[in-house]
Design a protein that fits this description.
- There is one protein chain.
- With 185 residues, this protein is mostly helical.
- It contains 10 helices and 2 strands.
């Protein structure tokens, strides 16, 4: 076995190629994960979505009595690695739209707000509002500290699985688009 590893492979030994490939893989993986994390920061998101970032600032998800704050990636990027990669691939369309000028001004963004919001609501609906549930767990909700309407809705619809968070909490951190024609409004 050692002879096969030491034996030259045209110009380089198999051992050199394996070790070199391993090192190149580690460098690629480290660079990839660094880019993934950097593109999940508020600074990165708000460089294009400044208007959306500003409208989030007065909400309870930005500033509240407990000091727990949701950042862009908490709500818009799944935590599980495979889901995160899929979402990042989807988000590349948004980066492209910004670069080619489709949503690069507040006016153009507003013109596409409803379409983008519906796409995000559909994504959250399809994954049972997973990003919401990363912080808000049904099993730990204290219904006695909620309004009677909220307690009834949560205990009825969330528990049965008939509805998910985004069905009722559209616009929780961002301004709503024109809601005409949106189901439930």
């Amino acid at each position: 076995m050692w002879q096969v590893i030491k034996k030259p492979c045209v110009h380089y030994s198999l051992g050199f190629l394996v070790i070199g490939g391993f090192i190149a893989g580690v460098i690629f993986w480290g660079g990839f994960n660094t880019a993934l994390e950097l593109s999940s920061t508020e600074e990165f998101c708000s460089s294009c979505h400044q208007n959306v970032y500003q409208e989030m600032q007065p909400t309870i998800h930005f500033s509240n009595r407990s000091g727990v704050r949701a950042t862009c990636h908490d709500c818009h990027v799944p935590h599980k690695w495979t889901d995160k990669i899929a979402r990042k691939m989807q988000a590349s369309k948004e980066v492209w739209a910004y670069l080619v000028g489709t949503i690069n001004t507040p006016e153009k963004f507003e013109a596409h707000r409803k379409e983008m919001a519906q796409r995000e609501w559909s994504r959250l609906k399809a994954n049972n509002s997973l990003e919401c549930r990363n912080c808000h767990e049904f099993d730990y909700m204290d219904f006695t500290r909620q309004s009677s309407r909220a307690a009834k809705m949560h205990s009825t619809y969330l528990e049965s699985g008939e509805k998910t968070c985004i069905d009722c909490h559209k616009g929780i951190a961002h301004q709503l688009p024109d809601m005409q024609g949106v189901e439930g409004w």
